[in-house]
Specification:
- This protein is an alpha/beta fold.
- Helix content is 42%, strand content 24%.
- The protein has a single domain, classed as Rossmann fold (3-Layer(aba) Sandwich), CATH 3.40.50.300.
- Helix 5 packs antiparallel against helix 6.
- The model has no long low-confidence stretch (mean pLDDT 92).
Length: 189
């Protein structure tokens, strides 16, 4: 398997990591490509298979686990799997690009542990758990119960921030985007 560099962005849901990653992907000079995760969760409105995620059933996901097809995977909630297919890394590296991940904390640390020399792992720290809750509620995509689950998970994830190479504070999105750009530019060059 050809190899290259990997950049991991991890954070609790609602921290702004997806917005930052999308911003970086628009900077063509960085030569980044998005690692599309596979998931067994249901597709949200507006999401596209093969662009946002590879949507597969829990049974298909389990089969791929058995085939050792993942770099990393996690059962985030019951029968709700997320993972990175090895074929994704191969696809991106073969194009001479750096892989960028928008991935949960456990997955990000798993990638870092498998490719320690090739990976820059960045934790996007939200201003506060209260701000996270506000952002999650503003999305209007999940029930109160799901939001409560995400907030409980967020607190566990924030406690692991120190395991990343860099903690990027997202108190102001424009500042965080600029700082992320500088970190990534230094790493890929």
């Amino acid at each position: 398997m050809k190899s290259g560099k990997l950049i991991v962005f991890s954070a609790p849901s609602g921290s702004g990591k997806t917005t930052i990653v999308k911003h970086l992907l628009q900077q063509e000079e960085l030569k980044l490509d998005f690692s599309i995760s596979a998931t067994s969760r249901y597709k949200r409105e507006g999401e596209v298979h093969g662009k946002d995620y590879y949507f597969i059933t829990a049974e298909e996901f389990q089969q791929k686990i058995n085939e050792n097809a993942f770099v990393e995977y996690e059962e985030v909630y019951k029968d709700n799997f997320y993972g990175t297919l090895k074929t994704e890394l191969e696809r991106i590296w073969s194009e001479g690009k750096t892989v960028i991940f928008d991935i949960d904390v456990v997955g990000g640390l798993n990638v870092k542990s498998q490719y320690p020399e090739q990976t820059l792992a960045i934790f996007v720290n939200p201003p506060s758990v209260e701000e996270l809750e506000k952002r999650l509620r503003h999305r209007q995509t999940e029930s109160d119960e799901k939001i409560a689950m995400r907030l409980a998970k967020a607190e566990r994830e924030i406690s692991r921030a120190k395991e990343f190479d860099v903690i990027l504070e997202n108190n102001d999105l424009e500042t965080a985007k600029k700082e992320a750009y500088q970190l990534v530019q230094q790493f890929v060059n």
